[in-house]
Description:
Elements: E1 2-5, E2 11-15, E3 20-25, E4 29-35, E5 42-48, E6 53-56, E7 65-74, E8 77-84, E9 89-94, E10 102-106, E11 118-120, E12 128-134, E13 137-143, E14 151-156, E15 162-163, E16 166-167, E17 170-171, H1 179-182, E18 189-195, E19 200-208, E20 215-221, E21 226-228, E22 233-238, E23 243-247, E24 255-258, E25 264-272, E26 279-286, E27 291-297, E28 312-315, E29 328-335, E30 349-355
Parallel strand pairs: 14-20
Antiparallel strand pairs: 1-2, 3-4, 4-5, 5-6, 7-8, 8-9, 9-10, 11-12, 12-13, 13-14, 14-16, 15-16, 17-18, 18-19, 19-20, 21-22, 22-23, 23-24, 25-26, 26-27, 28-29, 29-30
Amino acid sequence: MKIIDISKNYYEVVRHEKIKGTMFLSESSVLFQYNEENNDERCLKIFDFRTKTTLKVNLPVHFEIKNVQKFVDIHGYFYIEVSDINGLNCLFASYDRSEYFVRLTCGLESENSGYESVIYHPLLSGIIYANLKIGKNIYTHISMNYGKNFSMMKLKKKNGLCDGGSCNIKLSLPTVIHRNLYFQKDWISAFDMFDTSGNKLIGEHLISFDAGQNWKSVPFSYYHVQILNQGGIALGFNWRSRKIMYSFDEGKTFYYNKLHGSKEVIVNSWKTGKFQNESLILFLREVENKTFLVTHIDFSNILDRTCGNDDYYSWNPPIQNGACFHGREISYKKKKLNSMCVDTEPDLKILKSKPCPCSLDDYRW
Length: 365
């Protein structure tokens, strides 16, 4: 097996001779799963494109590899999902990009489900979503500290599913992470929810406004949440009732408006412009006449001023065991909920980054 760089006149980046196996390509590295010649034992190697080094993966003892399910190189860490010879699916990580991996959790959803068992927050490092088997059911668990601990979801006002704030809920973890659907802002996450008894999508969406620490069920279904004004407006539709629903305060209060006639169906939507000129274009189809309609939605009459310094506050990403992690406390600039203004900050701005004392809880042994 070999990898070549066609942009550099087919320069050979790495080669492995006399082995049969599979490659798993990630952002800045590649993992090889192979059997050595005359040896049935499965082996793993990683070639790091940045350092131009090859590492032979060392998993904890007594773990006999059957197959690698996924390899991810994100936020400076290696993650490997592996099944053993007994069919147990586990997640391993190398925090220092070395050959030594630690076990984070086991009991991941089977690779035959058609969905991902683990996804990683693309914008905030350390946040991991995992669908784990609990008894005979699969429920979504979330880690806020690079997989050191996984806890059940916390969903507000969901009777029958939650016990003391922890909930038996399964999210549909996508195979491809579209930021404009699932992670539209650093602190906003939105997913479809499964019916855990039948393992089918139920057309209900959950949204988190604090990077996954707490979740809310949105009152619209069958359509992904749309985020406007840098996260200041959460908007959605119900194509069956043809209602548009929106919130200015992260889902505490929703407002409703009905769109068009009874025989028109929402087909798609598209965001356009930014800041004061941001709006949503809604595409509808008239069933009987087979014609298309276009609706333009904006909030310029409500948001008639630009945010000032007093409209923002200091926000800390959710980290288990306080705001300090790995010796650093970081605070970001985020718009206040009650500030009805146009947010012109396109990205999270760091307000302060200061050292803080490390603790044993910061590290996995």
